[in-house]
Design goal:
51% of the residues lie in helices and 9% in strands. The protein is α/β, with parallel strands linked by helices. A six-stranded parallel beta sheet has the order 3-2-4-1-5-6, sandwiched between helices. Helix 3 packs across helix 4, helix 5 crosses helix 8 and helix 6 crosses helix 8.
Length: 306
């Protein structure tokens, strides 16, 4: 019998995943593994909504600001590191929490990554030249033509993922999506997935409020300090690229902030699209009490034992 249980908390940005995961960690007396890829980098705090120092004190967190934007850290690296960390945690506790809004990183831990063929160096170099000359929209259109299935599910504003998919498509003459249908890996722990959501207007209102708070807390100062490194992939993300445009004189500040809100709302929509394809997730409204969710988790755990 498998005695260890990983409780996975997912949902759109700004829905309250951090708060719930801390409450669950306190109840089960366990630790939290973050699967939010934007929160890995120590130079990025305000714009990625890293848990506050008070929240970090309430429960032990792992994979929060443990890397630099100057380091290469792939989802494959995260899968290996996260599984090793969970093995360590389960050596002394039957429970652990995995929390995050990065669907691919959650899947890496719960299902395992698919394996891909090697990419030809000349293909990668050519795509980098095309991106520099033509921009991301050109690459998005190319991906739509070569692999419409993956185009519909990927974050098309994530340059790294678009280029990665195109590398595979061009190198193999096969759609990238054809390599992501492999059987999931077996894990040495039970997995119970909890999804937190709300009606769309509520989600959008919470996002708008969060962005306003970020600006009040010093988002502009944080982004300005990172301006010399704006070409790094880690900084090609919502909340940073819009302020870079403001600093470059492309947009005024009010418009840049409105774009952060708009792009974050779009990001939340993509998150929900990703997670709703996973039939293993048990969904709860964001105002559901912790006690009710704990009761359901215990029921789910018992059912998995039967």
């Amino acid at each position: 019998m498998i005695n260890n249980t990983l409780i996975v908390v997912v949902g759109p940005t700004a829905i309250g995943k951090t708060s719930l995961s801390i409450k669950l960690a306190k109840h089960f007396n366990c630790e939290i593994v973050s699967a939010d890829s934007r929160q890995f980098y120590k130079e990025m705090q305000i714009g990625t909504a890293v848990p506050s120092s008070e929240e970090l004190l309430q429960a032990k967190h792992h994979f929060i600001q443990h890397k630099s934007i100057h380091e290469n850290y792939s989802v494959g690296d995260f899968e290996k590191d996260a599984i090793n960390k969970l093995d360590s945690l389960f050596a002394t506790n039957n429970y652990a929490i995995l929390v995050g809004g990065s669907g691919l990183y959650v899947d890496a831990v719960t299902k395992g990554l698919d394996s891909f063929p090697e990419v030809r160096t000349d293909v990668r170099e050519q795509l980098q030249k095309v991106h520099k000359k033509e921009g991301i929209i050109y690459l998005q259109n190319q991906l739509k033509k070569l692999d419409p299935v993956y185009y519909d599910k990927v974050d098309i504003h994530n340059t790294h993922r678009v280029m990665r998919a195109l590398e595979i498509c061009i190198s193999t003459n096969k759609p990238y999506s054809s390599f992501i249908t492999q059987p999931k890996k077996k894990r040495s722990f039970k997995i119970i997935k909890i999804g937190i959501t709300a009606e769309r207007p509520t989600i959008y209102d919470r996002i708008n409020q969060r962005v306003d708070i970020m600006v009040e807390e010093g988002l502009l100062t944080e982004v300005k300090s990172l301006y010399p490194y704006k070409e790094l992939n880690a900084l090609n993300t919502v909340g940073y690229k819009e302020i870079f445009n403001y600093m470059d004189g492309v947009w005024d500040l009010d418009f840049a902030i409105s774009e952060i809100k708009k792009n974050t709302r779009r990001f939340a929509k993509r998150q929900l699209t990703w997670f709703r394809k996973d039939e293993e997730i048990h969904w709860f409204d964001y105002v559901t009490s912790r006690e009710h969710i704990v009761e359901k988790i215990q029921n789910f755990s018992q059912n998995k034992n039967n």
